[in-house]
Amino acid sequence: MYLTQTSFYNQNVNGFTTIENFTTGAIHMNDKMKKIATGLLAGVMTLSLAACGSNNSGSGNASATNNGTGNSSNTGEKVTIELAISKSSQDSAFVAQDLLDEFEQKTNIKVNLQLLPAEQTATVLQTKLAVDEVPDLIQYNLASAVTDLNLERNFEILDNEPWVGRLLNKDVLSANDHVYSFHVSQDTGMQGVVYNKDIFKELGLAIPNSYEEFLAVCEKIKASGVTPVFMPFKDNWAANIWPAAAFADWAAKNEPSLFDDINAGRKKWSDVPEFATFLQQQYDVYKKGYTNTDILSDSYDMAVGKFLNKETAMMFMGDWLIVNVAEKDPSMHLGLFAIPSSDGASLGASPLGGQLFIPKKAKHMDEAKKFLEFIASKEVAQKIVDAQGYVSNFSDVTTPKLPEYKQEIVDQYITPKKTVLTTDAYMIVDRSELYRLLQDEFAGGLDPAGVLKAWDEKFSQLMKDKGAEGF
Amino acid sequence: MKISKKLYSYYLIWPALLIYSIFFVLPALTGLFYSFTDWRLDRESIKFIGFDNFERIFTDRTLLLAIKNTAIFAVVTVLGKNLLGIALAVGLNMKLKSKNVLRAIFYSPSILSVLVISIVFTPMLRSDGTINRIFDAVGLHSLNQAWLTNPSIVILTVAAVSIWQHTGFQMAIYLAGLQSISKEYYEAATIDGAGSWRSFRSITIPLLLPAININLMLTLIGGLKVFSEVFVLTGGGPGNASQVVGTIILRSFGEGSWGLGTAVNTLLFAAVTIIAIPLLIFMRRKEVSE
């Protein structure tokens, strides 16, 4: 820019008199100059863009090497392994700085964190895996890793790791009968009916053990002037809590191979008449007037308030809601019981999240495995389990004292083995269309059989796209 | 004395052209390529599959519904924004004391973020919301609706919110057009005995055609590309009742069907071009000069 300006100025001084001459002359005289100037300008702009791109990695490398030389008191060559984790999970116990420091001191292996933007975690990881720019460790959710990250193709099977033998519950870390992930906790998060214990006590209600008992409980709560069930179905995923537990409970008791058959294309969702019954049950709770009136306008973020104000007594949700309510008011007594879709139903367990994975193409596979061994060691695992209030997954690590509601869940459901992994754990395709169909049932667009039929169509399309056999 | 138009050299276009090509033309062309492939997140290789993606678009119920909804939204908003826009502009072009204040008020919604508008409108449109309560208060209970959750009217509700937001912007363009029409035409027409409707039809409309053209184009293209209003007000719901092409593209990418997503995108681009360009040419021919 500067160059062009001066050249105009020079022309003027050199005595071009008319405006016509001045402008056209300037262009003719300075063709070369302009070409150079514009070329330069373009170059500078491109460079500045490129600089933006490379700046981060440059400073990242610099800090990594700085730390490396600063701490090189240990013998042997220092190795730096990369751990990619979503920014939303940066409070995870596995990436606490003192833990990483301790590991570095013991093994001379430095763990460098790659914090990924929360809303793009899946996309960034997909890209990294696709272009072979893989981190050595990834923290992610096992169930989502199956649907988002192509678990079998991209991740190392950990069956033969030394810590596997001490696991109490291998299932929460496994897919297709192989251990693919690592965690010290088996506390998967439970899904059922969150209820206000105080309201139940006041009205003299017992936990319902069947659908009929549940309706009777609803009737009594409604008579007392409290909304029995809060359904925030503007958020369509919330409509999935009931069926996800009910379907899984039915399959576990009546046809354990059902989900394998469905995923292999041998059976359809609509082949099980009970599934339509379960969808009808949830719809009837609404139709009988036991819920908030505008269920499709109310959203999940209103739920905590509804419980705090005692406007509602129950909700089909996960136990994370209990934690959220307790954060606002520790004096609230909430509990969780199983979705009463059939007599004596099991409590739904959501797939465990926040596991560590090792990609097959990790550059420092051995060091990454050492990191898992380090966390799995009795002392380190005990420290994490105590600090986080986890239900321990190692035989030699003891579970600390749990909050009241969680202890009840452990006593009433986990210890007697009355839990069942929800259908989410078996679903290897994107589920959001199912959520929309469930919402449509409440908008009056589909009946239960219609929901299952439409989901069958979408499901087989998604499985076909995925290249699954049998579709 | 002739002032040359070439004050700046065309070489200055290079950097912009370069960046435009790299960041727009190139991705658009690769997008076109990918829409003929089975590009998915869990596929190792990308295969050319011809028109399969497009065939699927025209056989999938939800996608067809989305196309229908987009067409409804485009037609309703084009009519609403332009008819109301002209009416407001003509009204506010009269000698009113409050006309500047009113112009500002009518224009103000269009500077709001659509997110803000959704936060304001969502509670108003609930079945126990402000709008239904107003109907109740004036004895029009029968008009009560679940505006955002009744599948058969939800797309019209979203269109109405969009009309509310953008009419002021259309009004501003029409006002500019109206003010460029010389008063003399109206004086002459009055002397010839023309009433106000006659002068509106025979003077205002023909001389306003350039403004009408630009507004029709803007609202039509905006209507076909609708995304944010639907996304923030309903998310395409309830169920899939208010899905439009824009939200379907997002959904396809979310499901990992990247090839299908780009195909829908390509289709939208083609539809906008095929509808907009002939319309533009047709309308241009109708324009008259003073």
TrEMBL record, chain B:
<dbReference type="InterPro" id="IPR051393">
    <property type="entry name" value="ABC_transporter_permease"/>
</dbReference>
<protein>
    <submittedName>
        <fullName>ABC transporter permease subunit</fullName>
    </submittedName>
</protein>
<dbReference type="GO" id="GO:0005886">
    <property type="term" value="C:plasma membrane"/>
</dbReference>
<dbReference type="InterPro" id="IPR000515">
    <property type="entry name" value="MetI-like"/>
</dbReference>
<dbReference type="Pfam" id="PF00528">
    <property type="entry name" value="BPD_transp_1"/>
</dbReference>
<feature type="domain" description="ABC transmembrane type-1">
    <location>
        <begin position="67"/>
        <end position="281"/>
    </location>
</feature>
<keyword id="KW-1133">Transmembrane helix</keyword>
<keyword id="KW-0812">Transmembrane</keyword>
<feature type="transmembrane region" description="Helical">
    <location>
        <begin position="12"/>
        <end position="34"/>
    </location>
</feature>
<feature type="transmembrane region" description="Helical">
    <location>
        <begin position="260"/>
        <end position="282"/>
    </location>
</feature>
<comment type="similarity">
    <text>Belongs to the binding-protein-dependent transport system permease family.</text>
</comment>
<keyword id="KW-0472">Membrane</keyword>
<feature type="transmembrane region" description="Helical">
    <location>
        <begin position="145"/>
        <end position="164"/>
    </location>
</feature>
<dbReference type="GO" id="GO:0055085">
    <property type="term" value="P:transmembrane transport"/>
</dbReference>
<feature type="transmembrane region" description="Helical">
    <location>
        <begin position="71"/>
        <end position="92"/>
    </location>
</feature>
<dbReference type="InterPro" id="IPR035906">
    <property type="entry name" value="MetI-like_sf"/>
</dbReference>
<keyword id="KW-1003">Cell membrane</keyword>
<feature type="transmembrane region" description="Helical">
    <location>
        <begin position="104"/>
        <end position="125"/>
    </location>
</feature>
<feature type="transmembrane region" description="Helical">
    <location>
        <begin position="207"/>
        <end position="227"/>
    </location>
</feature>
<keyword id="KW-0813">Transport</keyword>
